[in-house]
Amino acid sequence: MTRPKVLLLGQIEHAHESWNSLSSLAELVHTQARCRAEFLDECRSGQLNGTTVIYRTFESLSITGKFDPELVRLLPTSVKFVCHNGAGYDQVDVHACTDRGIRVSNTPNTVNDCTADVNMFLILGSLRRFNPSMMSIREGKWRGHPPPPLGRDPQGKTLGILGMGGIGRNLKKKAEAFSMNVIYHNRSRLSEELAGGAQYVSFEELIRTSDVISLNLPLNKHTHHKISTRELQMMKKGVVIVNTARGAIIDEAALVEALNSGQVASVGLDVYEDEPNVHPGLIANPNVILVPHMGTWTYETQTAMEEWNISNVRSALETGVLRSVVPEQMGM
Ligand SMILES: O=CC(=O)O
């Protein structure tokens, strides 16, 4: 009997032992492609036939491009599972996969603490308006001339969490340790136990009443530019916004305008609409803290993500079922 193949798109950096252990179940293969055109040719050539499971990383986007309908259509018919190493799986068109009978998984939960930590760092840094002075001290200008406006304390401020999944709920606990009052909006209201006392409000109430707004929702066609000019104008003047989810949830051009007008006081970003390119208006504005997508950039979390993704591959091979199928395919 021919052995199934597992195709690796991207690199295994940490969990080498677990990855190698999969070789008792399947042949582990790599792509030779250096760009999307070459990958599509590889698919067409039949070289990847027999691949049952694909393990892909966020960075493999630079080789294959998005797993969009064009690419998904060209995958060998043997492919039944796409295991994405990351919590956010907007690079994969789940509907196109579903149409072809391919199941998709991600790595939820492994990223919660790490991402919520960066989230809290951005909240504190933006509220305290540390960025201008962190820039001026390196220019030999101490706090800057004139000194920056006074920062604000987190204590007693209302934090509106948009998207109360694993990261949102983790952030809630951290923010409460700083005596912030947490409200949230989510596609569906959480059970009392999951909400943990956070007040559920409508989207409009959240953006009208929060002192700090944190974006913790997935990017998809419903959430693309969820925050644009209209929503920014509805916010409290001097609001603080932080985003560790995906850049395109905010219309960056509209955000730059709102920062320039003072409607938004300060912003903390880990993600951008067109990574690795950053809107020049964000780079130019000292009231923006810029982190180059490092929400999960720790040894512990990167290792845990790889281990989790490998366990999805193993589960697919051994039982035909993924450990953490994406919500759109749950119950299918
Ligand atoms: O951005 C990081 C992730 O989606 O895990």
Structure description:
This is Glyoxylate reductase. GO terms for molecular function: glyoxylate reductase (NADPH) activity; hydroxypyruvate reductase [NAD(P)H] activity; NAD binding. The protein is an alpha/beta fold and 332 residues long. It has two domains: 136 residues, 3-Layer(aba) Sandwich (Rossmann fold), CATH 3.40.50.720; 179 residues, Rossmann fold (3-Layer(aba) Sandwich), CATH 3.40.50.720. Helices cover 36% and strands 16% of the residues. The protein is built from 14 helices and twelve strands. It has a seven-stranded parallel β-sheet with strand order 8-7-6-9-10-11-12, sandwiched between helices. A five-stranded parallel β-sheet has the order 2-1-3-4-5. α12 links the parallel β10 and β11. α6 crosses α8. The model has no long low-confidence stretch (mean pLDDT 97). The site of glyoxylic acid has 6 residues, from loops.
